[in-house]
Protein backbone atom coordinates (compact mmCIF):
# COMPACT_ATOMS: atom_id res chain seq x y z
CA UNK A 1 0.00 0.00 0.00
CA UNK A 2 1.30 3.46 -0.90
CA UNK A 3 2.17 5.85 1.90
CA UNK A 4 -0.75 8.03 2.92
CA UNK A 5 -0.17 11.69 2.06
CA UNK A 6 -1.51 14.59 4.10
CA UNK A 7 -2.16 18.25 3.38
CA UNK A 8 0.50 20.80 4.29
CA UNK A 9 0.11 21.92 7.89
CA UNK A 10 -1.99 25.07 8.02
CA UNK A 11 -3.46 24.50 4.54
CA UNK A 12 -6.86 22.92 5.03
CA UNK A 13 -9.35 21.01 2.93
CA UNK A 14 -12.84 22.48 2.91
CA UNK A 15 -15.34 19.72 2.21
CA UNK A 16 -19.11 19.30 2.52
CA UNK A 17 -21.03 20.08 4.64
CA UNK A 18 -18.65 22.90 5.74
CA UNK A 19 -18.17 24.08 2.17
CA UNK A 20 -21.87 24.93 2.01
CA UNK A 21 -21.28 27.65 4.61
CA UNK A 22 -18.49 29.08 2.46
CA UNK A 23 -20.77 29.16 -0.58
CA UNK A 24 -23.51 30.84 1.46
CA UNK A 25 -21.15 33.55 2.72
CA UNK A 26 -19.67 34.11 -0.74
CA UNK A 27 -23.18 34.53 -2.19
CA UNK A 28 -23.99 37.15 0.48
CA UNK A 29 -20.79 39.03 -0.37
CA UNK A 30 -21.40 38.95 -4.12
CA UNK A 31 -24.92 40.32 -3.68
CA UNK A 32 -23.71 43.11 -1.38
CA UNK A 33 -20.88 44.10 -3.70
CA UNK A 34 -23.31 44.28 -6.60
CA UNK A 35 -25.61 46.61 -4.67
CA UNK A 36 -22.68 48.97 -4.07
CA UNK A 37 -21.54 48.85 -7.70
CA UNK A 38 -18.39 46.77 -7.14
CA UNK A 39 -17.35 44.35 -9.88
CA UNK A 40 -15.33 41.16 -9.57
CA UNK A 41 -11.65 40.89 -10.50
CA UNK A 42 -9.59 37.68 -10.42
CA UNK A 43 -5.80 37.89 -10.24
CA UNK A 44 -3.12 35.15 -10.26
CA UNK A 45 -2.16 33.37 -7.04
CA UNK A 46 1.52 33.72 -8.04
CA UNK A 47 3.00 37.19 -8.58
CA UNK A 48 6.54 38.60 -9.03
CA UNK A 49 8.22 38.82 -5.62
CA UNK A 50 9.20 42.43 -6.39
CA UNK A 51 5.52 43.42 -6.38
CA UNK A 52 5.20 42.68 -2.67
CA UNK A 53 8.67 43.91 -1.70
CA UNK A 54 7.98 47.23 -3.42
CA UNK A 55 4.34 47.54 -2.42
CA UNK A 56 4.22 46.15 1.13
CA UNK A 57 7.66 47.34 2.24
CA UNK A 58 10.94 45.48 2.72
CA UNK A 59 10.87 45.71 6.52
CA UNK A 60 7.29 44.51 7.04
CA UNK A 61 6.76 41.18 8.79
CA UNK A 62 5.10 39.78 5.67
CA UNK A 63 8.07 40.43 3.40
CA UNK A 64 10.74 39.68 5.98
CA UNK A 65 9.51 36.32 7.23
CA UNK A 66 6.04 35.27 6.03
CA UNK A 67 6.10 35.06 2.23
CA UNK A 68 6.28 31.79 0.28
CA UNK A 69 8.86 32.79 -2.35
CA UNK A 70 10.74 30.67 -4.85
CA UNK A 71 12.75 30.83 -8.06
CA UNK A 72 11.11 29.80 -11.31
CA UNK A 73 13.22 26.90 -12.58
CA UNK A 74 12.46 27.81 -16.18
CA UNK A 75 13.77 31.39 -16.26
CA UNK A 76 15.10 32.20 -12.77
CA UNK A 77 12.33 34.72 -12.05
CA UNK A 78 11.64 35.35 -8.36
CA UNK A 79 8.00 34.50 -7.64
CA UNK A 80 5.77 34.57 -4.55
CA UNK A 81 2.45 33.05 -3.55
CA UNK A 82 0.34 36.14 -2.88
CA UNK A 83 0.26 37.00 0.85
CA UNK A 84 -2.52 39.59 0.35
CA UNK A 85 -4.78 40.80 -2.44
CA UNK A 86 -4.39 44.56 -2.86
CA UNK A 87 -0.96 44.61 -4.50
CA UNK A 88 -2.07 42.12 -7.17
CA UNK A 89 -5.24 44.08 -7.91
CA UNK A 90 -3.23 47.29 -8.29
CA UNK A 91 -0.72 45.53 -10.54
CA UNK A 92 -3.59 44.28 -12.73
CA UNK A 93 -5.23 47.73 -12.83
CA UNK A 94 -1.96 49.31 -13.95
CA UNK A 95 -1.09 46.58 -16.44
CA UNK A 96 -4.57 46.53 -17.99
CA UNK A 97 -5.05 50.35 -17.89
CA UNK A 98 -8.32 49.80 -16.06
CA UNK A 99 -8.78 53.22 -14.47
CA UNK A 100 -7.73 55.53 -17.27
CA UNK A 101 -11.31 55.68 -18.53
CA UNK A 102 -12.55 56.53 -15.03
CA UNK A 103 -12.43 55.26 -11.42
CA UNK A 104 -13.23 51.62 -10.67
CA UNK A 105 -14.84 49.74 -7.80
CA UNK A 106 -13.54 46.16 -7.69
CA UNK A 107 -13.73 43.17 -5.37
CA UNK A 108 -11.98 39.83 -5.14
CA UNK A 109 -12.20 36.52 -3.29
CA UNK A 110 -9.54 33.88 -2.96
CA UNK A 111 -6.72 32.17 -1.10
CA UNK A 112 -3.67 33.97 0.29
CA UNK A 113 -0.50 32.44 1.73
CA UNK A 114 1.70 33.33 4.68
CA UNK A 115 4.32 31.16 6.34
CA UNK A 116 3.42 31.45 10.00
CA UNK A 117 2.43 29.28 12.94
CA UNK A 118 -1.10 27.96 12.35
CA UNK A 119 -3.61 28.81 15.07
CA UNK A 120 -7.32 29.44 15.45
CA UNK A 121 -8.47 31.74 12.65
CA UNK A 122 -4.93 32.07 11.29
CA UNK A 123 -3.67 29.60 8.70
CA UNK A 124 -0.86 29.34 6.16
CA UNK A 125 -3.42 29.23 3.38
CA UNK A 126 -6.25 31.55 4.30
CA UNK A 127 -8.98 33.23 2.31
CA UNK A 128 -9.86 36.86 1.89
CA UNK A 129 -12.62 38.95 0.42
CA UNK A 130 -11.37 42.37 -0.59
CA UNK A 131 -12.97 45.58 -1.86
CA UNK A 132 -10.86 48.16 -3.71
CA UNK A 133 -11.97 51.58 -4.97
CA UNK A 134 -9.37 53.06 -7.31
CA UNK A 135 -9.31 56.62 -8.62
CA UNK A 136 -11.40 58.18 -5.82
CA UNK A 137 -9.74 60.84 -3.65
CA UNK A 138 -12.33 62.01 -1.13
CA UNK A 139 -13.33 60.60 2.25
CA UNK A 140 -16.78 59.74 0.85
CA UNK A 141 -15.48 56.49 -0.64
CA UNK A 142 -13.64 55.67 2.60
CA UNK A 143 -16.98 56.07 4.39
CA UNK A 144 -18.78 54.06 1.70
CA UNK A 145 -16.44 51.14 2.15
CA UNK A 146 -16.82 51.17 5.91
CA UNK A 147 -20.62 51.32 5.50
CA UNK A 148 -20.47 48.38 3.11
CA UNK A 149 -18.68 46.26 5.71
CA UNK A 150 -21.20 47.35 8.37
CA UNK A 151 -24.03 46.31 6.05
CA UNK A 152 -22.43 42.88 5.68
CA UNK A 153 -22.28 42.39 9.47
CA UNK A 154 -25.93 43.41 9.71
CA UNK A 155 -27.00 41.07 6.92
CA UNK A 156 -25.13 38.17 8.52
CA UNK A 157 -26.57 39.04 11.94
CA UNK A 158 -23.13 39.42 13.51
CA UNK A 159 -22.76 41.17 16.86
CA UNK A 160 -19.71 42.21 18.89
CA UNK A 161 -17.87 43.87 16.00
CA UNK A 162 -16.48 47.32 16.74
CA UNK A 163 -14.97 49.83 14.32
CA UNK A 164 -11.66 51.54 15.06
CA UNK A 165 -10.29 54.33 12.85
CA UNK A 166 -7.15 56.43 12.63
CA UNK A 167 -5.24 58.59 10.17
CA UNK A 168 -1.66 57.92 9.11
CA UNK A 169 -1.42 61.26 7.35
CA UNK A 170 1.00 61.67 4.48
CA UNK A 171 4.60 60.42 4.17
CA UNK A 172 6.22 63.74 5.17
CA UNK A 173 4.04 63.92 8.29
CA UNK A 174 4.89 60.35 9.18
CA UNK A 175 8.59 61.12 8.82
CA UNK A 176 8.35 63.91 11.40
CA UNK A 177 6.44 61.61 13.74
CA UNK A 178 8.91 58.78 13.06
CA UNK A 179 11.85 60.90 14.19
CA UNK A 180 10.04 61.89 17.38
CA UNK A 181 8.96 58.30 18.01
CA UNK A 182 12.50 56.94 17.61
CA UNK A 183 13.87 59.61 19.95
CA UNK A 184 11.23 58.69 22.55
CA UNK A 185 11.83 54.94 22.28
CA UNK A 186 15.60 55.39 22.45
CA UNK A 187 15.12 56.90 25.88
CA UNK A 188 13.31 53.71 27.01
CA UNK A 189 15.31 50.98 25.28
CA UNK A 190 15.47 48.97 28.49
CA UNK A 191 11.66 48.50 28.26
CA UNK A 192 11.65 47.28 24.64
CA UNK A 193 11.23 43.58 23.88
CA UNK A 194 13.36 41.90 21.22
CA UNK A 195 10.81 42.47 18.48
CA UNK A 196 10.60 46.19 19.28
CA UNK A 197 14.39 46.52 19.36
CA UNK A 198 14.54 44.92 15.92
CA UNK A 199 11.97 47.38 14.58
CA UNK A 200 13.27 50.51 16.33
CA UNK A 201 15.04 51.96 13.29
CA UNK A 202 13.47 49.96 10.45
CA UNK A 203 9.74 50.23 11.22
CA UNK A 204 9.14 51.97 14.57
CA UNK A 205 5.47 52.69 13.85
CA UNK A 206 4.73 48.97 14.15
CA UNK A 207 5.98 49.03 17.75
CA UNK A 208 2.84 50.98 18.64
CA UNK A 209 0.80 47.93 17.61
CA UNK A 210 2.55 45.59 20.06
CA UNK A 211 0.44 43.10 22.01
CA UNK A 212 3.11 42.72 24.73
CA UNK A 213 1.39 43.65 28.05
CA UNK A 214 4.71 44.82 29.52
CA UNK A 215 5.00 47.54 26.84
CA UNK A 216 1.48 48.97 26.94
CA UNK A 217 2.28 51.87 29.28
CA UNK A 218 5.32 52.74 27.17
CA UNK A 219 3.41 52.93 23.88
CA UNK A 220 0.55 54.84 25.50
CA UNK A 221 3.02 57.58 26.34
CA UNK A 222 4.59 57.66 22.88
CA UNK A 223 4.17 60.66 20.55
CA UNK A 224 0.83 60.53 18.71
CA UNK A 225 0.88 60.63 14.92
CA UNK A 226 -2.33 62.64 14.99
CA UNK A 227 -0.39 65.53 16.54
CA UNK A 228 1.82 65.72 13.44
CA UNK A 229 -0.94 65.80 10.81
CA UNK A 230 -1.25 68.82 8.55
CA UNK A 231 -4.40 70.71 7.62
CA UNK A 232 -5.30 68.58 4.58
CA UNK A 233 -4.83 65.27 6.39
CA UNK A 234 -6.95 66.45 9.30
CA UNK A 235 -9.63 67.71 6.91
CA UNK A 236 -9.78 64.28 5.24
CA UNK A 237 -10.07 62.55 8.62
CA UNK A 238 -12.71 64.99 9.85
CA UNK A 239 -14.63 64.47 6.61
CA UNK A 240 -14.60 60.71 7.15
CA UNK A 241 -15.83 61.11 10.73
CA UNK A 242 -18.64 63.43 9.65
CA UNK A 243 -19.83 60.93 7.03
CA UNK A 244 -19.73 58.05 9.51
CA UNK A 245 -21.66 60.15 12.02
CA UNK A 246 -24.25 60.99 9.37
CA UNK A 247 -24.87 57.27 8.80
CA UNK A 248 -25.04 56.45 12.50
CA UNK A 249 -21.92 54.28 12.31
CA UNK A 250 -20.23 54.06 15.72
CA UNK A 251 -16.43 54.11 15.88
CA UNK A 252 -13.49 54.63 18.21
CA UNK A 253 -10.41 56.63 17.28
CA UNK A 254 -7.41 54.41 17.99
CA UNK A 255 -4.16 56.40 17.67
CA UNK A 256 -2.17 53.14 17.82
CA UNK A 257 -3.87 51.69 14.75
CA UNK A 258 -1.10 51.55 12.13
CA UNK A 259 -1.70 48.51 9.86
CA UNK A 260 1.02 46.11 8.73
CA UNK A 261 1.78 47.30 5.18
CA UNK A 262 3.82 50.36 4.21
CA UNK A 263 1.46 51.44 1.43
CA UNK A 264 -1.22 52.98 3.68
CA UNK A 265 -1.79 56.73 4.13
CA UNK A 266 -4.57 58.91 5.54
CA UNK A 267 -7.58 56.82 6.67
CA UNK A 268 -7.00 53.39 8.19
CA UNK A 269 -9.60 51.28 9.94
CA UNK A 270 -10.21 47.89 11.52
CA UNK A 271 -13.28 45.95 12.58
CA UNK A 272 -12.44 44.01 15.74
CA UNK A 273 -14.18 41.50 17.98
CA UNK A 274 -13.53 40.13 21.44
CA UNK A 275 -15.06 36.75 20.55
CA UNK A 276 -12.02 35.22 18.81
CA UNK A 277 -9.30 35.72 21.40
CA UNK A 278 -6.03 37.09 20.09
CA UNK A 279 -7.25 36.93 16.48
CA UNK A 280 -9.61 39.85 17.04
CA UNK A 281 -9.36 41.67 13.69
CA UNK A 282 -11.97 40.41 11.21
CA UNK A 283 -11.72 43.14 8.56
CA UNK A 284 -9.20 45.92 7.98
CA UNK A 285 -8.14 48.44 5.39
CA UNK A 286 -7.52 52.03 4.54
CA UNK A 287 -6.32 54.46 1.91
CA UNK A 288 -3.24 53.71 -0.22
CA UNK A 289 -2.86 56.70 -2.53
CA UNK A 290 0.78 56.05 -3.41
CA UNK A 291 0.64 52.36 -4.33
CA UNK A 292 -0.49 52.73 -7.94
CA UNK A 293 2.57 54.88 -8.70
CA UNK A 294 4.82 52.50 -6.75
CA UNK A 295 3.96 49.63 -9.08
CA UNK A 296 4.52 51.72 -12.21
CA UNK A 297 1.19 53.40 -12.88
CA UNK A 298 0.16 57.00 -13.20
CA UNK A 299 -0.41 58.37 -9.67
CA UNK A 300 -4.02 57.89 -8.54
CA UNK A 301 -5.77 57.64 -5.17
CA UNK A 302 -7.23 54.39 -3.85
CA UNK A 303 -8.82 52.84 -0.77
CA UNK A 304 -9.76 49.29 0.16
CA UNK A 305 -10.35 46.65 2.79
CA UNK A 306 -10.07 42.90 3.21
CA UNK A 307 -11.82 40.49 5.52
CA UNK A 308 -10.70 37.04 6.62
CA UNK A 309 -13.25 34.45 5.50
CA UNK A 310 -12.16 31.87 8.10
CA UNK A 311 -12.50 34.40 10.89
CA UNK A 312 -15.95 35.53 9.77
CA UNK A 313 -17.13 31.91 9.58
CA UNK A 314 -15.62 31.24 13.01
CA UNK A 315 -17.47 34.25 14.40
CA UNK A 316 -20.73 33.14 12.77
CA UNK A 317 -20.27 29.72 14.34
CA UNK A 318 -19.48 31.27 17.73
CA UNK A 319 -22.71 33.28 17.59
CA UNK A 320 -24.84 30.41 16.27
CA UNK A 321 -25.56 32.16 12.97
CA UNK A 322 -24.44 29.60 10.41
CA UNK A 323 -27.35 28.47 8.22
CA UNK A 324 -28.59 24.92 8.01
CA UNK A 325 -26.72 22.86 5.43
CA UNK A 326 -28.80 22.56 2.23
CA UNK A 327 -30.51 19.21 1.67
CA UNK A 328 -32.08 17.82 -1.50
CA UNK A 329 -35.80 18.17 -2.11
CA UNK A 330 -36.03 14.50 -3.00
CA UNK A 331 -34.16 11.22 -2.81
CA UNK A 332 -34.78 8.77 -5.66
CA UNK A 333 -35.26 5.20 -4.44
CA UNK A 334 -34.65 2.81 -7.36
CA UNK A 335 -35.00 -0.86 -6.34
CA UNK A 336 -33.92 -2.29 -9.71
CA UNK A 337 -30.78 -1.21 -11.58
CA UNK A 338 -32.48 -2.21 -14.81
CA UNK A 339 -34.98 0.62 -14.26
CA UNK A 340 -32.34 3.35 -14.58
CA UNK A 341 -32.98 4.08 -18.30
CA UNK A 342 -36.60 4.86 -17.41
CA UNK A 343 -35.77 6.71 -14.18
CA UNK A 344 -32.93 9.02 -15.16
CA UNK A 345 -34.80 11.07 -17.81
CA UNK A 346 -37.51 11.80 -15.21
CA UNK A 347 -34.95 12.96 -12.64
CA UNK A 348 -33.30 15.16 -15.23
CA UNK A 349 -36.66 16.75 -16.07
CA UNK A 350 -37.31 17.42 -12.37
CA UNK A 351 -33.92 19.05 -11.94
CA UNK A 352 -34.50 21.21 -15.01
CA UNK A 353 -37.72 22.35 -13.32
CA UNK A 354 -35.81 23.43 -10.22
CA UNK A 355 -36.18 20.34 -8.00
CA UNK A 356 -33.00 19.08 -6.35
CA UNK A 357 -32.87 15.29 -6.49
CA UNK A 358 -30.26 12.95 -5.07
CA UNK A 359 -30.32 9.62 -6.91
CA UNK A 360 -29.45 6.34 -5.30
CA UNK A 361 -26.67 4.79 -7.35
CA UNK A 362 -23.95 2.19 -7.20
CA UNK A 363 -24.47 -0.30 -9.99
CA UNK A 364 -25.63 -3.89 -9.65
CA UNK A 365 -23.15 -4.80 -6.89
CA UNK A 366 -23.63 -1.81 -4.60
CA UNK A 367 -27.22 -0.86 -5.31
CA UNK A 368 -28.66 -1.85 -1.95
CA UNK A 369 -32.01 -3.12 -0.75
CA UNK A 370 -35.18 -1.04 -0.43
CA UNK A 371 -34.60 -0.87 3.32
CA UNK A 372 -31.04 0.42 2.95
CA UNK A 373 -32.12 2.91 0.27
CA UNK A 374 -34.84 4.32 2.50
CA UNK A 375 -32.32 4.61 5.32
CA UNK A 376 -30.07 6.66 3.04
CA UNK A 377 -33.05 8.70 1.85
CA UNK A 378 -33.87 9.60 5.45
CA UNK A 379 -30.22 10.37 6.20
CA UNK A 380 -29.98 12.71 3.22
CA UNK A 381 -32.40 15.14 4.87
CA UNK A 382 -34.67 15.13 1.81
CA UNK A 383 -38.33 16.00 2.27
CA UNK A 384 -39.55 13.27 -0.08
CA UNK A 385 -38.61 9.85 -1.36
CA UNK A 386 -39.36 9.23 -5.03
CA UNK A 387 -40.10 5.51 -5.23
CA UNK A 388 -39.50 4.03 -8.68
CA UNK A 389 -40.80 0.54 -7.85
CA UNK A 390 -41.52 -2.17 -10.40
CA UNK A 391 -45.30 -1.78 -10.19
CA UNK A 392 -45.14 2.02 -10.30
CA UNK A 393 -42.93 2.03 -13.37
CA UNK A 394 -45.12 -0.55 -15.11
CA UNK A 395 -48.02 1.91 -14.73
CA UNK A 396 -45.85 4.84 -15.90
CA UNK A 397 -45.88 6.38 -12.42
CA UNK A 398 -43.71 7.23 -9.42
CA UNK A 399 -44.73 7.19 -5.75
CA UNK A 400 -43.84 10.32 -3.78
CA UNK A 401 -43.55 9.60 -0.05
CA UNK A 402 -43.10 12.40 2.55
CA UNK A 403 -40.12 11.79 4.83
CA UNK A 404 -40.68 14.75 7.21
CA UNK A 405 -43.88 15.63 9.06
CA UNK A 406 -45.21 19.13 8.57
CA UNK A 407 -42.72 19.93 5.80
CA UNK A 408 -43.74 20.31 2.17
CA UNK A 409 -46.98 20.48 0.22
CA UNK A 410 -47.44 16.70 -0.18
CA UNK A 411 -48.55 15.21 3.14
CA UNK A 412 -49.21 11.57 2.19
CA UNK A 413 -47.83 9.08 -0.31
CA UNK A 414 -49.07 10.07 -3.77
CA UNK A 415 -48.72 8.69 -7.29
CA UNK A 416 -47.69 10.96 -10.14
CA UNK A 417 -47.38 10.37 -13.87
CA UNK A 418 -43.79 10.09 -15.10
CA UNK A 419 -44.64 11.83 -18.36
CA UNK A 420 -45.94 14.90 -16.49
CA UNK A 421 -42.93 15.44 -14.20
CA UNK A 422 -42.57 19.13 -15.02
CA UNK A 423 -46.20 19.71 -14.02
CA UNK A 424 -45.98 18.24 -10.50
CA UNK A 425 -42.40 19.46 -9.87
CA UNK A 426 -43.76 22.67 -8.36
CA UNK A 427 -45.38 20.69 -5.51
CA UNK A 428 -41.99 19.18 -4.63
CA UNK A 429 -40.44 22.64 -4.33
CA UNK A 430 -43.07 24.05 -2.00
CA UNK A 431 -42.05 24.30 1.65
TrEMBL record:
PROSITE patterns: AA_TRNA_LIGASE_II (PS50862)
Family matches, as InterPro entries: aa-tRNA-synth_II, aa-tRNA-synth_II/BPL/LPL, Anticodon-bd, Anticodon-bd_dom_sf, His-tRNA-ligase, HisRS-like_core, HisRS/HisZ, HisRS_anticodon
Cellular compartments annotated: Cytoplasm
Reactions this protein catalyses: tRNA(His) + L-histidine + ATP = L-histidyl-tRNA(His) + AMP + diphosphate + H(+)
Pfam families, A to Z: HGTP_anticodon, tRNA-synt_His
UniProt-listed Enzyme Commission number(s): 6.1.1.21
Keywords noted in UniProt: Aminoacyl-tRNA synthetase, ATP-binding, Cytoplasm, Ligase, Nucleotide-binding, Protein biosynthesis
Location of the Aminoacyl-transfer RNA synthetases class-II family profile domain: 25-335
UniProt-annotated binding residues for L-histidine: 84-86, 114, 128, 132, 259, 263-264
One Gene Ontology molecular-function label: histidine-tRNA ligase activity
Class of the enzyme per the UniProt entry, highest EC level: ligase
Record carries keyword Aminoacyl-tRNA synthetase: yes
One GO CC term, this protein: cytoplasm
Gene3D superfamilies: Anticodon-binding domain, Bira Bifunctional Protein, Domain 2
Keyword Magnesium: no
GO biological-process terms attached to the record: histidyl-tRNA aminoacylation
NCBIfam families, per the entry: hisS
Family: Belongs to the class-II aminoacyl-tRNA synthetase family.
Subunit text: Homodimer.
Protein name per the record: Histidine--tRNA ligase
Source organism: Malikia granosa
Amino acid sequence: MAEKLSAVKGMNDIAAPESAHWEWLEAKVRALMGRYGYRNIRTPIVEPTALFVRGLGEVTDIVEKEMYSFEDRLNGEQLTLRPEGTAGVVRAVVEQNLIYDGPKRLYYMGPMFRHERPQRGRYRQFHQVGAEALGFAGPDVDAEQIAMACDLWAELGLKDIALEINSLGQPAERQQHRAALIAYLEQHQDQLDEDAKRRLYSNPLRILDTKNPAMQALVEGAPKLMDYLGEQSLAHFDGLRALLDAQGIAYRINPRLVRGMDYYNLSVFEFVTTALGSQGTVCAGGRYDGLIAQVGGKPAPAVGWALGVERILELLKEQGLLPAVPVPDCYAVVPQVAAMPQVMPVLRALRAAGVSVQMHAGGSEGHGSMKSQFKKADGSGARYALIFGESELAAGQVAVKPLREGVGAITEQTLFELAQATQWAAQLRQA
